[in-house]
Amino acid sequence: MSQTSNRVDVGIVGGGPAGLMTALLLKRRGISAAVVERRSHGEIRRTQRAGILEAPTVDMLVEAEVGSRVLTDGHEHEGTVLSFDGVQHRIDFQELVGRSVWLYPQNEVFHDLATAWEREGGQIHWSVQEVGVHGVDSDQPSITFLDAQGQAGRIEADLIVGADGSRSMCRRLIPEDVRTDYFTTYPFAWFGILCDAPPTAPELIYANSEVGFALISQRNESVQRMYFQCDPETKPADWSDAAIFDHIQQVLGGPDAVNLKRGPIIEKTVLPFRSYVCDPMTFGRLVLAGDAGHTVPPTGAKGLNLAFSDVRALVPRVEEFLTGLRQAAEAEADAPASTAPLERYSRTTLDRVWKAQNFSYWATNLLHRQPGENEFAQRRRRGEFDAITGSVHGQAYFADSYTGWSAPSPN
Ligand SMILES: Cc1cc2nc3c(=O)[nH]c(=O)nc-3n(C[C@H](O)[C@H](O)[C@H](O)COP(=O)(O)OP(=O)(O)OC[C@H]3O[C@@H](n4cnc5c(N)ncnc54)[C@H](O)[C@@H]3O)c2cc1C
Protein backbone atom coordinates (compact mmCIF):
# COMPACT_ATOMS: atom_id res chain seq x y z
CA MET A 1 0.00 0.00 0.00
CA SER A 2 1.40 3.47 -0.84
CA GLN A 3 2.17 5.70 2.12
CA THR A 4 2.02 9.49 2.49
CA SER A 5 4.96 10.57 4.60
CA ASN A 6 5.95 13.89 6.11
CA ARG A 7 8.42 15.29 8.57
CA VAL A 8 7.75 17.65 11.49
CA ASP A 9 9.57 18.53 14.70
CA VAL A 10 7.00 16.90 16.98
CA GLY A 11 4.43 14.18 16.26
CA ILE A 12 1.45 14.13 18.64
CA VAL A 13 -0.82 11.15 19.31
CA GLY A 14 -4.24 12.34 20.50
CA GLY A 15 -6.24 15.43 19.54
CA GLY A 16 -7.83 16.04 22.95
CA PRO A 17 -7.10 19.14 25.06
CA ALA A 18 -3.53 18.05 25.92
CA GLY A 19 -2.56 17.21 22.33
CA LEU A 20 -4.10 20.28 20.70
CA MET A 21 -2.82 22.73 23.31
CA THR A 22 0.68 21.25 22.92
CA ALA A 23 0.49 21.65 19.13
CA LEU A 24 -0.63 25.28 19.39
CA LEU A 25 1.95 26.34 21.99
CA LEU A 26 4.75 24.63 20.05
CA LYS A 27 3.69 26.54 16.94
CA ARG A 28 3.89 29.80 18.91
CA ARG A 29 7.59 28.98 19.43
CA GLY A 30 8.18 28.16 15.77
CA ILE A 31 8.15 24.38 16.32
CA SER A 32 6.18 22.35 13.78
CA ALA A 33 3.79 19.62 14.92
CA ALA A 34 1.32 17.13 13.43
CA VAL A 35 -1.55 15.49 15.33
CA VAL A 36 -3.24 12.12 14.76
CA GLU A 37 -6.62 11.54 16.42
CA ARG A 38 -8.60 8.30 16.47
CA ARG A 39 -12.03 9.90 16.73
CA SER A 40 -13.79 12.36 14.45
CA HIS A 41 -14.05 16.05 15.30
CA GLY A 42 -17.83 15.66 15.67
CA GLU A 43 -17.58 12.72 18.07
CA ILE A 44 -15.21 14.54 20.42
CA ARG A 45 -17.34 17.68 20.26
CA ARG A 46 -20.36 15.67 21.42
CA THR A 47 -18.56 13.99 24.35
CA GLN A 48 -19.51 15.52 27.70
CA ARG A 49 -16.69 15.57 30.22
CA ALA A 50 -15.06 18.38 32.19
CA GLY A 51 -16.82 21.57 33.13
CA ILE A 52 -14.67 23.34 35.71
CA LEU A 53 -11.58 25.25 34.60
CA GLU A 54 -9.03 26.76 36.95
CA ALA A 55 -7.86 30.35 36.34
CA PRO A 56 -4.47 29.33 34.80
CA THR A 57 -6.36 27.05 32.37
CA VAL A 58 -8.54 29.97 31.29
CA ASP A 59 -5.44 32.16 30.98
CA MET A 60 -3.79 29.55 28.73
CA LEU A 61 -6.78 29.51 26.39
CA VAL A 62 -6.68 33.28 26.11
CA GLU A 63 -2.88 33.52 25.82
CA ALA A 64 -2.75 30.75 23.20
CA GLU A 65 -5.08 32.93 21.09
CA VAL A 66 -7.71 30.23 20.72
CA GLY A 67 -10.42 32.84 21.14
CA SER A 68 -12.17 34.52 24.02
CA ARG A 69 -15.37 32.42 24.09
CA VAL A 70 -14.26 31.06 27.46
CA LEU A 71 -14.61 34.59 28.83
CA THR A 72 -17.84 35.51 27.05
CA ASP A 73 -19.67 32.15 27.26
CA GLY A 74 -18.02 30.71 30.39
CA HIS A 75 -19.34 31.46 33.87
CA GLU A 76 -17.10 32.56 36.70
CA HIS A 77 -17.85 30.71 39.95
CA GLU A 78 -16.58 32.46 43.05
CA GLY A 79 -17.57 29.60 45.32
CA THR A 80 -19.19 26.19 45.59
CA VAL A 81 -21.61 24.50 47.96
CA LEU A 82 -20.85 21.42 50.06
CA SER A 83 -23.94 19.72 51.46
CA PHE A 84 -23.99 16.99 54.11
CA ASP A 85 -27.29 15.34 55.07
CA GLY A 86 -29.10 18.29 53.54
CA VAL A 87 -27.20 21.02 55.45
CA GLN A 88 -25.39 23.36 53.09
CA HIS A 89 -22.08 25.19 53.54
CA ARG A 90 -20.80 27.61 50.93
CA ILE A 91 -17.04 27.67 50.31
CA ASP A 92 -16.27 31.22 49.21
CA PHE A 93 -13.22 30.84 46.96
CA GLN A 94 -12.69 34.56 46.44
CA GLU A 95 -12.85 35.42 50.12
CA LEU A 96 -10.69 32.48 51.16
CA VAL A 97 -7.97 32.40 48.50
CA GLY A 98 -8.78 35.25 46.08
CA ARG A 99 -9.39 32.94 43.11
CA SER A 100 -12.38 31.70 41.08
CA VAL A 101 -13.02 28.79 38.72
CA TRP A 102 -14.88 28.95 35.38
CA LEU A 103 -17.65 26.71 34.18
CA TYR A 104 -16.92 26.14 30.49
CA PRO A 105 -17.55 22.65 29.07
CA GLN A 106 -14.66 20.58 27.77
CA ASN A 107 -16.34 20.05 24.40
CA GLU A 108 -16.25 23.83 23.93
CA VAL A 109 -12.58 23.92 24.99
CA PHE A 110 -11.91 21.21 22.42
CA HIS A 111 -13.86 23.08 19.74
CA ASP A 112 -11.92 26.30 20.38
CA LEU A 113 -8.56 24.51 20.24
CA ALA A 114 -9.37 22.47 17.12
CA THR A 115 -10.76 25.52 15.34
CA ALA A 116 -7.64 27.56 16.14
CA TRP A 117 -5.29 24.75 15.06
CA GLU A 118 -7.10 24.18 11.77
CA ARG A 119 -7.56 27.91 11.09
CA GLU A 120 -3.81 28.31 11.33
CA GLY A 121 -3.21 25.46 8.89
CA GLY A 122 -2.07 23.00 11.58
CA GLN A 123 -1.76 19.41 10.41
CA ILE A 124 -4.31 17.07 12.00
CA HIS A 125 -5.55 13.67 10.85
CA TRP A 126 -9.00 12.88 12.29
CA SER A 127 -10.59 9.40 12.46
CA VAL A 128 -7.30 7.54 12.01
CA GLN A 129 -6.97 3.81 12.68
CA GLU A 130 -4.18 1.34 13.41
CA VAL A 131 -1.94 3.98 14.95
CA GLY A 132 1.60 2.79 15.61
CA VAL A 133 4.46 4.64 17.28
CA HIS A 134 7.93 3.45 16.37
CA GLY A 135 11.57 4.02 17.30
CA VAL A 136 11.12 6.00 20.51
CA ASP A 137 14.41 4.47 21.70
CA SER A 138 16.14 5.67 18.50
CA ASP A 139 16.80 9.15 17.06
CA GLN A 140 14.19 8.61 14.32
CA PRO A 141 10.80 8.13 15.96
CA SER A 142 7.69 8.01 13.79
CA ILE A 143 3.92 7.54 13.82
CA THR A 144 2.14 5.36 11.28
CA PHE A 145 -1.63 5.20 10.76
CA LEU A 146 -4.45 4.62 8.32
CA ASP A 147 -6.25 7.88 7.57
CA ALA A 148 -10.03 8.33 7.32
CA GLN A 149 -9.92 7.14 3.70
CA GLY A 150 -7.89 4.03 4.61
CA GLN A 151 -4.71 5.50 3.10
CA ALA A 152 -1.48 4.66 4.97
CA GLY A 153 0.25 7.70 6.51
CA ARG A 154 3.55 8.25 8.29
CA ILE A 155 4.83 11.17 10.37
CA GLU A 156 8.55 11.37 11.05
CA ALA A 157 9.60 13.60 13.94
CA ASP A 158 12.35 14.33 16.42
CA LEU A 159 10.00 13.73 19.35
CA ILE A 160 6.65 12.06 19.96
CA VAL A 161 4.15 13.43 22.47
CA GLY A 162 1.73 10.78 23.76
CA ALA A 163 -1.46 12.71 24.58
CA ASP A 164 -3.73 9.75 23.94
CA GLY A 165 -5.82 9.80 27.09
CA SER A 166 -6.34 7.47 30.03
CA ARG A 167 -6.07 4.25 28.00
CA SER A 168 -2.83 5.45 26.42
CA MET A 169 -1.08 3.11 24.06
CA CYS A 170 1.96 5.45 24.09
CA ARG A 171 2.72 4.94 27.76
CA ARG A 172 3.06 1.20 27.17
CA LEU A 173 6.10 2.05 25.00
CA ILE A 174 7.94 2.94 28.20
CA PRO A 175 9.52 -0.43 29.03
CA GLU A 176 8.13 -2.21 32.08
CA ASP A 177 11.53 -2.26 33.79
CA VAL A 178 11.66 1.56 33.48
CA ARG A 179 8.01 2.40 34.20
CA THR A 180 6.13 2.17 37.47
CA ASP A 181 2.32 2.19 37.29
CA TYR A 182 0.69 3.51 40.46
CA PHE A 183 -3.07 3.08 40.62
CA THR A 184 -6.09 2.55 42.77
CA THR A 185 -9.71 1.80 41.93
CA TYR A 186 -12.95 2.73 43.68
CA PRO A 187 -16.03 0.60 44.44
CA PHE A 188 -18.37 3.19 42.91
CA ALA A 189 -18.89 5.15 39.70
CA TRP A 190 -20.80 8.27 38.60
CA PHE A 191 -24.11 8.09 36.80
CA GLY A 192 -24.04 11.27 34.70
CA ILE A 193 -27.01 12.91 33.01
CA LEU A 194 -27.60 15.86 30.73
CA CYS A 195 -31.11 17.24 30.85
CA ASP A 196 -33.09 20.01 29.21
CA ALA A 197 -33.79 22.16 32.24
CA PRO A 198 -32.70 25.55 33.60
CA PRO A 199 -30.09 25.68 36.40
CA THR A 200 -31.15 24.27 39.76
CA ALA A 201 -28.51 26.40 41.49
CA PRO A 202 -26.10 29.18 40.45
CA GLU A 203 -23.03 27.28 41.72
CA LEU A 204 -22.07 23.60 41.89
CA ILE A 205 -23.49 21.60 44.80
CA TYR A 206 -21.45 18.61 46.02
CA ALA A 207 -23.82 16.65 48.25
CA ASN A 208 -23.33 13.67 50.54
CA SER A 209 -26.29 11.91 52.17
CA GLU A 210 -27.14 8.52 53.56
CA VAL A 211 -28.02 7.37 50.02
CA GLY A 212 -24.66 8.51 48.63
CA PHE A 213 -23.23 11.36 46.62
CA ALA A 214 -24.66 13.71 44.00
CA LEU A 215 -23.27 16.68 42.10
CA ILE A 216 -25.48 19.40 40.70
CA SER A 217 -23.67 21.20 37.92
CA GLN A 218 -24.67 23.36 34.98
CA ARG A 219 -23.98 23.60 31.26
CA ASN A 220 -25.93 26.62 30.11
CA GLU A 221 -29.24 28.40 30.64
CA SER A 222 -31.26 25.47 29.31
CA VAL A 223 -29.12 22.32 29.71
CA GLN A 224 -28.02 20.88 33.04
CA ARG A 225 -25.36 18.33 34.03
CA MET A 226 -25.86 16.19 37.15
CA TYR A 227 -24.22 13.09 38.60
CA PHE A 228 -24.96 10.62 41.36
CA GLN A 229 -22.96 7.82 42.89
CA CYS A 230 -23.77 4.34 41.56
CA ASP A 231 -22.39 0.82 41.34
CA PRO A 232 -19.84 0.55 38.48
CA GLU A 233 -21.96 -2.24 36.91
CA THR A 234 -25.09 -0.04 36.69
CA LYS A 235 -26.80 -0.03 33.28
CA PRO A 236 -28.04 3.47 32.37
CA ALA A 237 -31.12 2.06 30.60
CA ASP A 238 -32.31 0.48 33.88
CA TRP A 239 -32.99 3.94 35.34
CA SER A 240 -36.07 5.89 34.26
CA ASP A 241 -35.90 9.68 34.18
CA ALA A 242 -38.28 9.92 37.15
CA ALA A 243 -36.22 7.46 39.23
CA ILE A 244 -33.05 9.44 38.50
CA PHE A 245 -34.54 12.77 39.57
CA ASP A 246 -36.20 11.22 42.64
CA HIS A 247 -32.88 9.76 43.72
CA ILE A 248 -30.93 13.02 43.27
CA GLN A 249 -33.72 14.88 45.06
CA GLN A 250 -33.36 12.46 47.96
CA VAL A 251 -29.61 13.20 48.20
CA LEU A 252 -30.41 16.93 48.33
CA GLY A 253 -33.21 16.54 50.90
CA GLY A 254 -32.94 17.93 54.44
CA PRO A 255 -32.99 21.30 56.23
CA ASP A 256 -31.57 23.23 53.24
CA ALA A 257 -33.38 21.09 50.65
CA VAL A 258 -33.03 22.27 47.08
CA ASN A 259 -35.80 21.61 44.59
CA LEU A 260 -34.36 20.06 41.47
CA LYS A 261 -35.32 21.59 38.14
CA ARG A 262 -36.40 18.59 36.05
CA GLY A 263 -36.62 18.18 32.29
CA PRO A 264 -36.18 15.56 29.57
CA ILE A 265 -32.92 13.62 30.03
CA ILE A 266 -30.94 13.71 26.79
CA GLU A 267 -27.90 11.66 27.84
CA LYS A 268 -27.18 8.99 30.47
CA THR A 269 -23.70 7.53 31.08
CA VAL A 270 -21.88 5.56 33.77
CA LEU A 271 -18.32 6.74 34.44
CA PRO A 272 -15.99 4.40 36.34
CA PHE A 273 -13.43 5.92 38.71
CA ARG A 274 -9.70 5.34 38.74
CA SER A 275 -6.56 7.03 40.01
CA TYR A 276 -3.40 6.35 38.01
CA VAL A 277 0.13 7.74 37.69
CA CYS A 278 2.84 6.69 35.23
CA ASP A 279 6.40 7.36 36.45
CA PRO A 280 8.45 8.47 34.56
CA MET A 281 6.39 10.32 31.94
CA THR A 282 9.19 10.13 29.38
CA PHE A 283 11.42 7.57 27.71
CA GLY A 284 13.89 8.23 24.90
CA ARG A 285 12.10 10.31 22.26
CA LEU A 286 8.64 9.89 23.85
CA VAL A 287 7.00 12.14 26.40
CA LEU A 288 3.49 11.89 27.89
CA ALA A 289 1.02 14.69 28.61
CA GLY A 290 -2.43 14.77 30.21
CA ASP A 291 -4.50 11.69 31.05
CA ALA A 292 -1.97 9.50 29.22
CA GLY A 293 0.40 10.07 32.14
CA HIS A 294 -2.10 10.32 34.99
CA THR A 295 -5.81 9.93 35.62
CA VAL A 296 -7.81 11.26 38.55
CA PRO A 297 -11.44 10.64 39.56
CA PRO A 298 -13.52 13.63 38.45
CA THR A 299 -14.59 14.71 41.97
CA GLY A 300 -11.85 17.32 42.33
CA ALA A 301 -12.30 18.68 38.76
CA LYS A 302 -8.59 18.32 38.16
CA GLY A 303 -7.97 16.19 35.01
CA LEU A 304 -8.23 18.79 32.24
CA ASN A 305 -6.55 21.39 34.42
CA LEU A 306 -3.66 19.02 35.07
CA ALA A 307 -3.41 18.27 31.35
CA PHE A 308 -3.00 22.00 30.65
CA SER A 309 -0.42 22.45 33.39
CA ASP A 310 1.53 19.52 31.91
CA VAL A 311 1.53 21.30 28.57
CA ARG A 312 2.62 24.59 30.10
CA ALA A 313 5.59 22.83 31.71
CA LEU A 314 6.33 20.63 28.69
CA VAL A 315 6.55 23.11 25.82
CA PRO A 316 9.65 25.02 27.05
CA ARG A 317 11.39 21.69 27.76
CA VAL A 318 10.62 20.47 24.23
CA GLU A 319 12.11 23.66 22.83
CA GLU A 320 15.21 23.17 25.00
CA PHE A 321 15.53 19.55 23.87
CA LEU A 322 15.19 20.45 20.17
CA THR A 323 17.71 23.29 20.51
CA GLY A 324 20.20 20.84 22.03
CA LEU A 325 19.50 18.43 19.21
CA ARG A 326 20.16 21.07 16.53
CA GLN A 327 23.33 22.25 18.25
CA ALA A 328 24.63 18.67 18.50
CA ALA A 329 23.87 18.16 14.80
CA GLU A 330 25.71 21.36 13.84
CA ALA A 331 28.69 20.34 15.94
CA GLU A 332 28.50 16.89 14.34
CA ALA A 333 28.69 15.44 17.85
CA ASP A 334 28.65 11.65 18.10
CA ALA A 335 26.94 11.57 21.49
CA PRO A 336 23.11 11.23 21.46
CA ALA A 337 21.19 14.45 22.17
CA SER A 338 20.54 14.96 25.87
CA THR A 339 17.01 14.08 26.97
CA ALA A 340 17.65 15.81 30.33
CA PRO A 341 15.04 18.58 29.65
CA LEU A 342 12.36 15.93 29.13
CA GLU A 343 13.37 14.12 32.30
CA ARG A 344 13.19 17.41 34.19
CA TYR A 345 9.66 17.93 32.84
CA SER A 346 8.66 14.48 34.10
CA ARG A 347 10.04 15.08 37.60
CA THR A 348 8.50 18.51 38.14
CA THR A 349 5.18 17.53 36.60
CA LEU A 350 4.86 14.46 38.78
CA ASP A 351 5.22 16.58 41.94
CA ARG A 352 2.13 18.55 40.88
CA VAL A 353 0.32 15.42 39.76
CA TRP A 354 0.67 13.81 43.18
CA LYS A 355 -0.76 16.93 44.85
CA ALA A 356 -3.76 16.70 42.55
CA GLN A 357 -4.00 12.94 43.09
CA ASN A 358 -4.14 13.54 46.81
CA PHE A 359 -6.90 16.16 46.57
CA SER A 360 -8.96 14.11 44.12
CA TYR A 361 -8.67 10.96 46.25
CA TRP A 362 -9.39 12.83 49.46
CA ALA A 363 -12.41 14.71 48.08
CA THR A 364 -13.75 11.49 46.54
CA ASN A 365 -13.59 9.64 49.84
CA LEU A 366 -14.98 12.59 51.80
CA LEU A 367 -17.99 12.99 49.53
CA HIS A 368 -18.96 9.39 48.65
CA ARG A 369 -20.25 6.54 50.76
CA GLN A 370 -18.42 3.22 50.54
CA PRO A 371 -20.79 0.32 49.80
CA GLY A 372 -21.71 -1.43 53.06
CA GLU A 373 -19.82 0.99 55.31
CA ASN A 374 -20.64 0.86 59.00
CA GLU A 375 -21.97 3.52 61.36
CA PHE A 376 -18.45 4.33 62.59
CA ALA A 377 -17.31 5.19 59.05
CA GLN A 378 -20.32 7.44 58.50
CA ARG A 379 -19.90 9.32 61.76
CA ARG A 380 -16.15 9.68 61.22
CA ARG A 381 -16.82 11.17 57.77
CA ARG A 382 -19.32 13.57 59.31
CA GLY A 383 -16.58 14.66 61.75
CA GLU A 384 -14.17 15.20 58.85
CA PHE A 385 -16.78 17.19 56.94
CA ASP A 386 -17.48 19.40 59.99
CA ALA A 387 -13.73 19.93 60.45
CA ILE A 388 -13.53 21.27 56.88
CA THR A 389 -16.67 23.38 56.78
CA GLY A 390 -16.52 24.57 60.42
CA SER A 391 -13.08 26.15 60.21
CA VAL A 392 -11.74 28.88 57.99
CA HIS A 393 -8.53 26.86 57.66
CA GLY A 394 -10.41 23.75 56.55
CA GLN A 395 -12.44 25.76 54.05
CA ALA A 396 -9.26 27.43 52.78
CA TYR A 397 -7.65 24.01 52.22
CA PHE A 398 -10.60 22.99 50.07
CA ALA A 399 -10.69 26.33 48.21
CA ASP A 400 -6.92 26.38 47.59
CA SER A 401 -6.86 22.83 46.22
CA TYR A 402 -10.07 23.09 44.20
CA THR A 403 -9.22 26.37 42.48
CA GLY A 404 -5.71 25.09 41.72
CA TRP A 405 -2.21 25.96 42.63
CA SER A 406 -0.12 28.55 40.81
CA ALA A 407 0.74 27.64 37.22
CA PRO A 408 4.13 26.14 36.32
CA SER A 409 6.63 28.70 35.03
CA PRO A 410 6.25 29.25 31.25
CA ASN A 411 10.06 29.31 30.77
C1 LIG B 1 -17.43 13.09 33.91
C2 LIG B 1 -16.12 13.78 33.89
C3 LIG B 1 -16.04 15.04 34.44
C4 LIG B 1 -14.81 15.71 34.43
N1 LIG B 1 -14.76 16.95 34.98
C5 LIG B 1 -13.59 17.62 34.96
C6 LIG B 1 -13.54 18.97 35.41
O1 LIG B 1 -14.54 19.57 35.83
N2 LIG B 1 -12.34 19.61 35.35
C7 LIG B 1 -11.22 18.98 34.86
O2 LIG B 1 -10.14 19.62 34.85
N3 LIG B 1 -11.25 17.72 34.40
C8 LIG B 1 -12.40 17.02 34.42
N4 LIG B 1 -12.46 15.78 33.88
C9 LIG B 1 -11.24 15.15 33.32
C10 LIG B 1 -10.97 15.56 31.87
O3 LIG B 1 -12.08 15.26 31.07
C11 LIG B 1 -9.72 14.84 31.32
O4 LIG B 1 -8.71 14.90 32.28
C12 LIG B 1 -9.22 15.45 30.01
O5 LIG B 1 -10.04 15.03 28.96
C13 LIG B 1 -7.78 15.04 29.70
O6 LIG B 1 -7.41 15.53 28.42
P1 LIG B 1 -6.39 14.70 27.51
O7 LIG B 1 -6.21 15.49 26.27
O8 LIG B 1 -5.22 14.32 28.32
O9 LIG B 1 -7.13 13.33 27.21
P2 LIG B 1 -8.45 13.08 26.33
O10 LIG B 1 -9.40 14.19 26.45
O11 LIG B 1 -8.92 11.72 26.70
O12 LIG B 1 -7.89 13.08 24.84
C14 LIG B 1 -7.11 12.01 24.35
C15 LIG B 1 -7.44 11.84 22.88
O13 LIG B 1 -6.59 10.83 22.32
C16 LIG B 1 -7.32 10.06 21.40
N5 LIG B 1 -6.65 8.76 21.27
C17 LIG B 1 -6.62 7.73 22.15
N6 LIG B 1 -5.87 6.73 21.66
C18 LIG B 1 -5.41 7.13 20.44
C19 LIG B 1 -4.59 6.53 19.47
N7 LIG B 1 -4.06 5.30 19.64
N8 LIG B 1 -4.33 7.22 18.34
C20 LIG B 1 -4.84 8.46 18.14
N9 LIG B 1 -5.64 9.09 19.06
C21 LIG B 1 -5.90 8.42 20.19
C22 LIG B 1 -8.70 9.97 22.02
O14 LIG B 1 -9.69 9.69 21.03
C23 LIG B 1 -8.85 11.35 22.66
O15 LIG B 1 -9.55 12.26 21.81
C24 LIG B 1 -13.67 15.08 33.87
C25 LIG B 1 -13.76 13.82 33.30
C26 LIG B 1 -14.98 13.17 33.30
C27 LIG B 1 -15.07 11.78 32.69
Folded structure, characterized:
- The chain has 411 residues and is an alpha/beta fold.
- The chain has a domain at 3-77 and 102-183 and 274-370: FAD/NAD(P)-binding domain.
- Helices cover 36% and strands 28% of the residues.
- The chain has helices at residues 17-28, 41-46, 55-63, 69-73, 93-97, 106-119, 241-252, 303-330, 340-367, 375-389, 392-403; strands at residues 3-7, 10-13, 33-36, 52-54, 75-77, 79-84, 87-92, 101-103, 123-125, 129-134, 142-146, 152-156, 159-162, 180-196, 205-209, 212-216, 223-230, 265-279, 282-283, 286-288, 294-295.
- The strands form 4 sheets. Strands 7-6-15-16-17-14-18-21 form an 8-stranded mixed beta sheet, with helices on both faces. Strands 9-3-2-13-20-19 form a 6-stranded mixed beta sheet. It has a 4-stranded mixed beta sheet with strand order 1-12-11-10, with no helix packed on it.
- Strand 15 and strand 16 form a beta hairpin.
- Helix 1 packs parallel to helix 6 (106-119), helix 1 packs across helix 8 (303-330) and helix 8 packs antiparallel against helix 9 (340-367).
- The model has no long low-confidence stretch (mean pLDDT 95).
- The structure holds flavin-adenine dinucleotide.
- Flavin-adenine dinucleotide binds at residues 13-19, 36-39, 44, 49-52, 106, 128, 131, 163-165, 169, 192, 271, 290-291, 298, 301-305, 307.
- Using the alpha-carbon principal axes, give the shape: globular
Low-confidence stretches: none
Determine the number of helices (DSSP H or I, runs of at least 4 residues). 11
CATH names the topology of the domain at 3-77 and 102-183 and 274-370 as FAD/NAD(P)-binding domain
**What strand line-up does the widest sheet have?**
7-6-15-16-17-14-18-21
Summarize the main sheet.
Answer: 8 strands, mixed
Keywords: Monooxygenase, NAD, Oxidoreductase
InterPro entries: FAD-bd, FAD/NAD-bd_sf, PheA/TfdB_FAD_monoxygenase
GO molecular function: FAD binding; monooxygenase activity
Pfam families: FAD_binding_3 (PF01494)
